[in-house]
Design brief:
This protein is mostly helical. It is built from five helices and no strands.
Length: about 130
């Protein structure tokens, strides 16, 4: 196994997913293919909560990191923040409903948005089975 295959196997094992190696002669040398089958039913509920939490953390980081990108001018930062906010609003609407997405949309300022996303992280953590 090459290093990429070992890393993938370890990552899948960490998530509790069964890994079955195989080969595909049609792939070029040095290319690793990953194929997924049906979702394991025993992991769906816990994994969904964990994935929601990780996405909430990622969104919080996304908003907070925009200001730290010193090479960007203010217009570029504003564009990145608008794009990030739009993506986050969509994610919130899909996973938590339109009213939650609207509350996020109506917040002004990066700090308020970060605080709101952190509150989402806390709610997800409290609702995740131990």
């Amino acid at each position: 196994m090459n290093p990429s295959e070992v890393t993938l196997m370890a990552a899948f094992a960490e998530m509790g997913l069964k890994y079955t190696g195989s080969s595909d002669a049609s792939l070029p040398n040095g290319v690793t293919g990953v194929y997924f089958g049906p979702e394991p039913t025993a992991l769906v509920k816990v994994d969904k909560q964990r994935l929601l939490y990780w996405q909430a953390v990622k969104n919080t980081y996304l908003i907070s990191s925009i200001d730290q990108q010193n090479a960007d001018d203010n217009a570029t930062k504003a564009q990145k923040e608008a794009r990030a906010s739009s993506d986050i609003e969509h994610w919130l609407q899909v996973n938590f409903g339109k009213s939650v997405a609207n509350r996020f949309h109506n917040l002004s300022g990066r700090d308020a948005k970060i605080k709101f996303l952190e509150s989402i992280e806390i709610k997800i953590t409290k609702s995740t089975p131990q």
